[in-house]
Each structure stands twice: as C-alpha cells, then as structure tokens.
Specification:
Length: about 750
C-alpha cells in the first residue's frame, strides 16, 4: 500500500512540475530524454484528452519499449525517461507497424515484437494493456499472441476494438515458403478468443493486412495477394470477418489487380473507415506509365461491393501530365459527404528533391472529383522535398493538412526540416490568414510527423522525431506540439468540452434500442441513422440515456452522442453500430366464440358472438341457406352483434364469423352455427284437419281423408327445428321421438298445403 501511495504521489509531483503546452515553434514540448536515441514511436489520445506515447530506445543492451502519458494540459505523468513496458531481447530490424492503440475505455494497447519465445532469432508478438495511470492491466509480461511459438518474420500488426469491447488483431507471418495473415480476438480481460483464424491461400503470398472496424462487432481486412516472385502482380483484396472469425461475404472483394514493384505495400497503401461500415483504400501505382505513378482511391462498401460507381481499380485523384504522385493520406468527412485525399508529387528524374503537396475532394456517393483533374496545390513545386504529411478533420467541412518540408537554410548553408500545417475549407481555400503555419522550426532534421484527429473541436496534437539535440551525440528525440483551431500554438485557455465516453447500445429490440453513455455535461445531442442514411438528431437534457423508438426490424443503425457545454459543443463520440433483430411473430388472432342467435322471426334474426382477445379491429360475417353452397359476406363489422334481415321464412340458415386483428392478420372462421326462421303461422285453417297427438314419445298423425303427406317437421317453442322426417305417404303416420315434457309445433307439408299443430310431448 505504501509503494502504491508513493507511486501516486510521484505522479502528482511530476504533473505539477512539468511545463504545459509550449506556444513557441522554436521550442515545442520534448517527450523523450536527452542522451539516448529513439528508434520507433507512436501516440494516441483518449476521449478525455489523455495522450499515450510509446517508443523504443536502447537500454541495458536491448531495445526496450517505454510509455509516456501526457494529460490534456501537456503535463507528463512520468519523468522524460518514461515507464518501461518491456525489455525482453529483440531484433533491431523487426518491424511492428503499429505500436499503440487507445481503446474506448481510455487504456493503451501497446504492441511489442520480441524474442521472448526464442533462444535465437525467432520473434513473436505480445500485447500490453496500460491504464491512464500507468497500471499494467494485463500483467508485467503482457499477452503472448503467438502462444509460445517463434517465427522467422512478423510485420504489419494492426489492432482495433469492436463494439463488444473486444480487440481484433491482424498481422503478417512469413515462415519458410508460407506467407499468410494471422488474426486473433482478445477480450477486455486478456483472454484469446479465436482459434487459428487465418487468411491464406497457398501457394499465393497473403500479406499486408489493413484492418478497420466495420460495426456490429465485425471487421474488414484489406490485404495483398501475389504469386511467388519479386515482380509478380499483386491483388488488393477485401474480406469482411464476423465476430466469430467466419467470413461474412460469400466471396472476397477484388479492389485492384496490378503491379506494385519492390516497394513494400505498407508504404504504398492506406485504409481508413468510411464511418458506414466500409473502408476507403488509397494507394499509388504505375499502370498508365511505368515511369510515372498516380494516386488512386477505392471505396469498399459494407455490403461487399465497390462504391464510386463500382469501379474496380479505384478513382485517380490526380492526373498531372509531368509529375508522378505517391503516398496518399485520407480523411473522411462523412457528415458533409466528402473524402479528402492528399499526396505528394515529384519528377522521376534528378529533380526528385523538388516536390509539391496536393489535396483533392471526392464526393463519397459517386467518386466525383470536386476540385478538377489535379486537385488543389497546398505547397507548390519548389526547391525542397515534402514528407510525412497527414490529414485530419478541421470542423465545419474543413481539413487540416500537416507536413514537413526539407529546405535550404539561408544562414547556415545546409538543409533543415520545418513542420507545417494549413487548414483548407470545403472550397479548396486557405482558412487562416497566414495560410501555412510553422509548428516547429529549430535547425535539425525531423521525421515521421504524426497528428491526432481534432480534439474536443478545439485543437490537434502532433508528434515527430527530431535531431535538434544532436550535440549530445544521439540524433533522435521525440517532440510534441499543440495546434489550436484558430491557428495558434500551445494552451490558449480554451475550456475543453469533452465528448461522452463508454457509449453503449443495450438492450436492442426489433423496434427500439436504449443508448447510454458517460459524460461531464448536463445536456447532450444524440443522432442516429440507418447506415448510409441521413442523421436524425435528438436533444437529451439532464440524462445519460435515450430510447430510440419506431426502429425498423433487421436494419443496420449507427448512433453517436456529443456534449453540449455552456459555450461549446464537443466533437462527436465514436460511432456505435447495431442491428435490430427480426420482429417476433405476432400473437395469434383468436377465433370468436359463443355464437348465438336471438329474436328469430320469419325474415330476420339477431346474431352475436364473443371475441377471443382484445386486439380485434373488426369482424367479418358470412351466412347462407342450409341448402346452398354460396356464402353471403358482411365485412368490417365494428360491433359483436349483427341484425340479419331479408331472410326467407321457415328456412334453415348457417352462419359463422371471424376476427380481423390487423390488415394482414385474421382468425380462423368460427364453428358454423344454424337457425331456422319462423314459419308463416302456427295454425292454418283447413276444411278437413288431420288429428295430431302424442302418446309417450310417439307422435300420432291421423289422416282420415288420405291426403298426401310429403314430410313432417318439428319445432321447439323458441323456433329450433327438433325433428325432420320424409314421409311421402297418404296413410296415417306414427313417428317415434326422444322428446319428452316439451311443447312442439308439428308442421305437416303436403303437395299444395301446409298445416301446423301444437302438441305436448309426454
């Protein structure tokens, strides 16, 4: 406990004593110590403004990996030596490609390539997880991604995080004659979740993975395929992989097939997410002229098709007739519907030291070039080289372009590097009055300038290697600079409006979803959309959650949230993608019950029934004479009763009813019910009446004049038919029945006459 307390106190002292962001381009903020050289470095920022810098430097006879943590004000958590993460034996030539990834919880995932599994030259990858306070969350030795195995060569490591909080990695493996891409999924707690997920196709060489988050816990990997041989053609290919490691698309998507020469593709190709579940892929090749390369961009959409009107091979973003273009960098302004691409141009002659920097705006929906055939020149073709350019969003449709120029020093008569930046609006014009601003201008060589996205809608951070302190005998240190949105340097007193963090969508139903988040503001703006649709905004006051309603089943959605502070609006949180499940089957539309008939007359009756549930909107009824086969229909009844009229007297009818619960849901027809309308009279006068009486359960009919009797029907007092007998005789008739203790009406039907008698059955 004392040790932990001492560590915390030391960290607090360091933060108090460190300087804040420097506002002088001749000074900047030095991150790494004097007296030692830095080999590789990379940085990333969390949602609260904390910056993690990881770097490799020699110590104790090995190349060790260190981390430095800088708060939003520019104060370092550790001394400039940083905190050592790993000092296991390494190979100096080993290429990692990605050193650090900052997750949604504000932790840093650090990549180390070392010889931990080897006594010779075999290498393997390991991951470390470090909290904002420097705690080793996955232990002092991290996680061995290779499971104790060693390999000849590993490269091109990628790490991203999916919506479930897990991490997905992809890297190239070269072992003997094999070249393939190995992938792994790691839980938040450091458990390896996939078992040998690979992208391979022997004897083809599969390598150079570029990994982006595709939403819904899926990823898209863009990679290279080529046959053996140094000068064989390569195919840029995309594959979408599900959360369990399986392929999502039925077939891989071919992005471009062509010749790339000897230059490794990690120099040539770039890939960024399109914020809609797809990816933009940029590269340069010499398909049109073997002596002059051009820059291209392709759009791989979330459904496995190519955007930009489905053009395979991409869209050429610049077509200069003399200069060759190379090294594209991209920024997607999905909200405005544009993709921005920067690239360098030079001659393939002795004039390669002369370069210019261009930018192009493409319409995402079509790939249309918005700024002409050659784009807009940021830095014109001049007597110096341009290097290490990056591009970031600048708010309001603007784009910030960072770059380094190597120029001739007029006083000292040698070359020196200057880090610069400019802000370009959506019309291709400079935003700042000074047009191009110098970020760092001390005499010395600078390299590998990197930049962050716009932080809190207020500033960017840049980092680079710098030799200004070469007097100590060691060339390379790491420096940082803060650039504000207004073009000033250092801390300009801007109050930071932090974006929400820990955005979660749960639970999700077929027509709703609950979105929750953490934040420091009182009010928020939430926006959501169907993927590739228009954003819909909702204001959230005094709450940290919101219920999305009236969603469509089986539909891909995206949601984001930003804070509304007193004088500022934060940048948007990261976009969370989710898919609504299929709607559950509707409950059955229950069949009506208890069909009943009352007030039967010679020509009418009242029909009624009871409903099976409470969802019925209407009922349909049908009826027919018992001797017919065609139904008469009555639709859209709003009441559970119906007055049926215009019937024939003394006629048996059948009827039934069903419920209409919705437009496409109806119940079964109820069991048919029957009734008979009243005859035209109970007593009919005849000159010669027959005699009708009952004895026990026997019905006696005395026919003194031998009149023809066709049939005899018996009716109860409520009109129900209780007996129907075919006679066809002129004799007396004796009919056995089962009727007792009831009054019946006996209808005697002849050729041309009918008479009815009332009889008490005993």
């Amino acid at each position: 406990m004392k040790k932990e307390l001492f560590t915390i106190l030391l960290a607090v002292v360091c933060m108090i004593t460190n300087a804040q962001w420097n506002d002088n381009p001749a000074e900047n903020n030095r991150i790494t110590p004097l007296g030692t050289e830095i080999y590789d470095f990379e940085f990333g920022t969390s949602n609260d403004g904390t910056t993690f810098i990881t770097f490799n430097r020699p110590t104790g006879g090995v190349t060790a990996t260190f981390i430095q943590i800088v708060d939003v004000n520019g104060n370092m958590l550790f001394s400039d030596a940083g905190k050592m993460i790993s000092n296991k034996p390494t190979l100096s030539w080993t290429m990692t490609n990605q050193l650090i990834f900052v997750d949604d919880d504000g932790n840093a995932i650090i990549v180390v390539c070392d010889c931990r599994n080897s006594t010779g030259t075999g290498i393997s990858y390991a991951l470390y997880k470090v909290s904002p306070t420097g705690e080793m969350l996955w232990g002092e030795d991290g996680i061995d991604l290779c499971g104790g195995m060693e390999y000849e060569t590993l490269a091109r490591m990628n790490v991203i995080q999916t919506e479930d909080g897990n991490y997905v990695c992809a890297w190239s493996v070269y072992q003997g004659e094999d070249a393939y891409i190995q992938m792994q999924k790691i839980s938040k707690t450091g458990t390896l979740l996939w078992n040998n997920v690979r992208i391979e196709a022997p004897p083809l060489m599969i390598d150079y993975p570029y990994l982006v988050n595709a939403g819904n816990n899926q990823v898209i990997v863009t990679f290279s395929k080529k046959t053996a041989g140094m000068y064989s053609n390569r195919t840029l290919t995309a594959r979408k992989i599900a959360s369990d490691g399986a392929n999502v698309w039925a077939n891989d998507l071919s992005v471009f097939t062509g010749f790339f020469g000897m230059t490794p593709l990690w120099v040539i190709v770039r890939a960024i997410p399109d914020q809609m579940g797809g990816t933009f892929v940029g590269w340069y090749d010499s398909r049109d002229n073997p002596n002059k390369s051009s820059t291209y961009v392709a759009h791989v959409k979330a459904n496995g098709t190519l955007g930009f009107n489905g053009i395979e091979g991409g869209v050429k973003v610049g077509g200069h007739t003399i200069l060759t273009s190379f090294e594209p960098e991209m920024y997607c302004d999905e909200e405005e519907g544009f993709l921005y691409v920067t690239w360098r141009e030079t001659e393939n002659t002795i004039q390669q030291s002369k370069q210019q920097l261009n930018i192009q705006q493409l319409k995402i929906s079509s790939g249309e070039l918005m700024w002409g055939q050659n784009g807009v020149i940021i830095s014109p073709y001049y007597d110096y080289t341009i290097s290490f350019h990056t591009i970031q969003g600048g708010g309001d449709g603007n784009a910030a372009v960072f770059f380094t120029t190597n120029e001739w020093h007029p006083q000292y008569y040698f070359e020196w590097d200057i880090n610069k930046v400019t802000l370009i609006n959506s019309h291709g014009e400079y935003v700042w009055d000074n047009e191009i601003i110098e970020l760092s201008n001390p005499v010395g060589f600078k390299d590998n300038m990197l930049s962050t996205p716009l932080q809190f809608n207020s500033y960017w951070l840049t980092i680079w290697g710098d030799s200004r302190d070469a007097g100590d005998g060691k060339a390379r240190k790491v420096y940082m600079q803060r650039l504000n949105l207004d073009g000033t340097l250092g801390d300009n007193g801007t109050i930071v409006c932090s974006p929400p963090t820990n955005l979660v969508v749960d639970p999700i139903t077929y027509n709703s979803a609950v979105v929750s988040w953490e934040g420091k503001a009182d009010d928020y703006e939430l926006s959501y959309r169907i993927v590739e649709g228009d954003w819909i905004s909702e204001e959230v006051t005094g709450a940290y959650s919101f219920i999305l309603e009236d969603l469509i089943p089986l539909t891909d959605y995206q949601v984001r949230v930003r804070s509304i502070c007193e004088t500022q609006i934060s940048v948007w949180s990261g976009i969370i993608s989710f898919t609504t499940p299929d709607a559950p089957p509707p409950p059955p539309c229950e069949t009506p019950v208890n069909l009943n008939v009352t007030e039967i007359s010679q020509t009418s009756a009242i029909l009624s029934w009871e409903e099976g549930n409470e969802e019925n909107l209407s009922w349909s009824l049908r009826f027919q004479e018992a001797s017919n086969t065609d139904w008469n229909d009555v639709d859209l009844l709003e009441e559970k009763t119906y007055f049926l009229e215009n019937l024939n007297q003394n006629t048996a009818y059948l009827w039934t009813v069903r419920a209409n619960c919705s437009e496409d849901r109806t119940s079964e027809w109820a069991t048919e019910n029957n009734f008979t309308t009243e005859p035209d009279g109970i007593v009919v006068e005849k000159k010669d009446l027959m005699t009708v009486y009952a004895s026990g359960q026997m019905l006696n009919i005395i026919n003194p004049e031998n009149r023809f009797i066709e049939k005899i029907q018996l009716f109860s007092i409520d009109g129900r038919i209780v007996g129907d007998y075919l006679v066809n005789s002129t004799n007396n008739v004796l009919i056995p029945t089962t009727l007792t203790e009831m009054i019946v009406f006996v209808k005697i039907i002849g050729n041309n006459d009918i008479e009815t008698h009332k009889v008490l059955m005993k």
